[in-house]
Design brief:
alpha/beta; Peroxisomal Thiolase, Chain A, domain 1; 4-stranded mixed β-sheet
Length: 349
């Protein structure tokens, strides 16, 4: 609704829009649910970066702020806005672990359901960082690609000539339910969350630990949580940012975690095609992973043209691949050394 949207920052608007589409796709009738048994877990890396910037400029120019400034820019307002829009009164949590945020919301939401805290969770992420200060901030730490003369070639994860990520923005929401709840209401089930784990590099504000030990441990722990072995994994949706350090480090982590199977498993980066959605990346990429599982088509890592000796795995270069995928992992890593891994699987009755 226009009135409620006008009282939200853009990152909250996108969270509400994505959640509405997810609810519609799921076919769930919230009026038949106990609204204290439905919850929200929303991730964001920054929140209202654009509104913060505009508000600061307005304050400098006019010496005052809109009364809604504070309550609209805080990160938890995306999840709160979803709850208010759809009258969801159960658990409501916000994760702000940078680019690992919405991978963690999937894990956190799953565990809330497993603990019996909720029957249904809306789990997702949202980010609205495409503004002058947002671009300047990432440019200042040399995280962005400078391939401005050929932007369609700029995002090139695992390629030798990668030079930084391409910023994106958006939101994604998944509807998580207990198996019993989904079956009882006749839900169309896209897949299952089998496992989850999170670790931290404890190393640097921005740079990942080059050893790959902490993200590797997250993969190992997620597989243990799922009761699986490395050889059970058919596909990896990589964090794959197109930065020199991330892609080499993630490759090393997969080798540590999966051993010889790392050379056999298909790996691809969604960011090669849509850019880096920061705190929303994990949710959107989990959706892509579930569609891979459902459709048996692995999307490629585009712009992979020049092999890097430090990135020598199967990144499904440039062309989609038809392949049966039963079990996949989706990785989400973030500034501050946050690592999150979720294990997704084909639903089997």
């Amino acid at each position: 609704e226009r009135k409620s949207a006008s009282r939200m920052a853009r990152f909250s608007q996108m969270a509400v829009a994505a959640s509405g589409m997810a609810l519609a796709d799921s076919g769930i009738d919230l009026s038949k649910e106990d609204d204290f048994r439905v919850g929200v877990a929303m991730g964001t890396g920054i929140g209202a970066f654009d509104d913060m910037t505009e508000g600061a400029a307005a304050f400098i120019a006019k010496g005052r702020l809109n009364p809604l400034y504070a309550p609209t820019i805080i990160p938890n307002m995306a999840g709160a806005s979803v709850a208010m829009q759809f009258h969801i009164r159960g658990p409501n949590t916000t994760v702000t672990t940078a680019c690992a945020a919405s991978t963690q919301t999937l894990g956190d939401a799953t565990r809330m359901i497993q603990r019996g805290d909720a029957d249904v969770m809306l789990a997702g992420g949202t980010e609205a960082s495409l503004c002058e200060v947002g671009i300047a901030a990432f440019n200042a730490i040399r995280a962005l690609s400078t391939r401005n003369d050929a932007p369609e070639k700029a995002s090139r994860p695992f390629d030798r000539d990668r030079d930084g990520f391409v910023p994106g923005e958006g939101a994604g929401t998944l509807i998580l339910e207990s198996r019993e709840h989904a079956i009882n209401r006749g839900a169309r089930i896209y897949g299952e969350v089998l496992g989850y784990a999170t670790t931290n590099d404890a190393y640097h504000q921005v740079a990942p630990d080059a050893t790959g030990e902490a993200p590797a441990k997250a993969v190992v722990l997620a597989l243990q949580d799922a009761g699986l072995e490395a050889e059970d994994i058919d596909y990896v949706n990589a964090h794959g940012t197109s930065t020199q350090l991330n892609d080499a480090g993630e490759t090393k982590a997969l080798k540590l975690a999966l051993g010889a199977h790392a050379y056999k498993v298909a790996i691809s980066s969604t960011k090669s095609m849509i850019g880096h959605l920061l705190g929303a990346a994990g949710a959107v990429e989990a959706i892509a992973t579930l569609l891979t599982i459902n459709r048996g088509i692995i999307h490629p890592t585009i712009n992979y043209e020049n092999p890097d000796p430090d990135c020598d795995l199967d990144y499904v270069p440039n062309t989609a691949r038809r392949q049966d995928v039963r079990i996949a992992i989706s990785n989400g890593f973030g500034f501050g050394g946050h690592n999150a891994v979720v294990v997704l699987a084909k639903y089997e009755e």
